[in-house]
Specification:
- This protein has one domain (5-191).
- The chain is 34% helix and 20% strand.
- It contains six helices and seven strands, in the order H-E-E-H-E-H-E-H-E-H-E-E-H.
- Strand 3 (68-73), helix 3 and strand 4 form a beta-alpha-beta unit.
């Protein structure tokens, strides 16, 4: 996986201090830590309802000393911002090629040296949707890595890492449990998020 802002020498400690200061100034609380055995994992990014989710996710990532990679629609990577987005940990996603994306993401996680936390929004969009995509689930299942339930609650100004979830292969049962965990959280545009 490409070098990112999270593993660029000299940059990460300074951005961690800035992120902690900014979040504190804005009244946010960051809680949790990366669980043992989750150096390689899939982080669920929910709720995802706003463009603000990315900068806050990056700041929380610095605060928790994570090594984040995140998926974004391919148009974010067009000239002139493509290089910057990749340096911020971005991976361009062509919507509609989900099968290839799952296999490629799982292979990249398996092959990666060191810590990799792959952030995947289950809604697949920041717009209103009732349907959660299952790519995050199948990436974790294929790569045999845990899912860590990360969250961002704008109403309570609370973000962090929740429990580890290990996919069983029974997707209906597992998705019901995952959605139940996310039901209380409110995105920036709360009406666009439905974990039901």
């Amino acid at each position: 996986m490409q070098r990112t802002i999270f593993d660029t020498p000299g940059v990460s400690p300074a951005l961690r201090a800035l992120s902690l200061a900014w979040l504190r100034l804005r009244g946010w609380t960051v809680e949790g830590q990366l669980p043992e055995g989750a150096n390689k994992c899939v982080l669920i990014a929910a709720p995802h309802t706003s463009n603000w989710d990315l900068p806050y996710t990056l700041m929380v990532g610095f605060s928790l000393r994570l090594n984040l990679y995140w998926m974004g629609k391919h148009s974010l990577f067009d000239f002139p911002f493509g290089g910057l987005m990749r340096w911020l940990g971005g991976i361009a996603v062509q919507r509609g090629q989900s099968g290839n994306l799952v296999a490629a993401s799982a292979a990249a996680l398996t092959a990666a040296d060191g810590r990799v936390q792959l952030v995947v929004p289950p809604e697949g969009t920041r717009g209103a949707t009732r349907h959660w995509k299952t790519g995050f689930y199948y990436i974790a299942l294929s790569a045999q890595v845990p899912i860590v339930m990360a969250y961002m609650d704008y109403e309570r100004k609370l973000s962090g890492l929740g429990p580890v979830f290990r996919p069983s292969g029974d997707i209906e049962k597992d998705m019901a449990a995952i959605k139940a965990f996310y039901a209380p959280f409110k995105g920036r545009n709360a009406r666009q998020f439905d974990a039901g």
